[in-house]
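Submission checklist for the structure archive. All mandatory fields must be present; incomplete records are returned to the submitter.

[x] Identifier: MYND-type domain-containing protein
[x] Organism: Agrocybe pediades
[x] Residue count: 195
[x] Sequence attached
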Amino acid sequence: MSEIIIEAFGYGPRESRVEVSILYPIPENMRGNSNLIKSWCMDLVLFTLQPDLKHNGSWGCEICSKPARETNFTTATWTHLPQPRAVVYIHHLCEAGENPCNQAIIAQNQMMAAMTPGIGPQAPAKIREKPEGVEFPLSASCCNCKKDSTGTPDARLRRCARCKLVRYCSTECQVTDWPRHKQNCKHIKSVKWVN
């Protein structure tokens, strides 16, 4: 149990999705402790893997197809198993919070939890409030500079040649982001695009 298997599914409009398999080493001091692994895994997904799982495709809102700026990450973990696992669902949205698109995803997540044996109905996840006046970068934008101009359909972004997941607008942006991305790149085992 030295690694955790993470299966990530990113969803966009018209049933488009990306399926990403990640094999990440568990820190030695956490091995064998299910609760520590679960907490570490949640932080890993939300703070370390998040840029790579968000800025990787020409994403529109999963519900209304408008350009996506926000994401709803839902993670299920099975860290008590001999081979710890996590499944991450990334829903690309035009807007989070009380927006009808986000509310549709929250309702979907609650329905899935209610149908899952041993889980049952869940309280809605706490949503971090977006600071007033802040606009998040487009999900379709370059993983480094995140300029809106790089998130348009005519922008010619190139994927990382090794992992085939993240996208950059230029060699300069890829080189600048490499110290951050290389920590994830080597653990991405497969990427499959659907639709």
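[x] Structure attached
Curator remark: The chain has a mean pLDDT of 91. The beta strands are 3-11, 17-25, 70-78, 85-93, 158-159, 167-168, 188-194.
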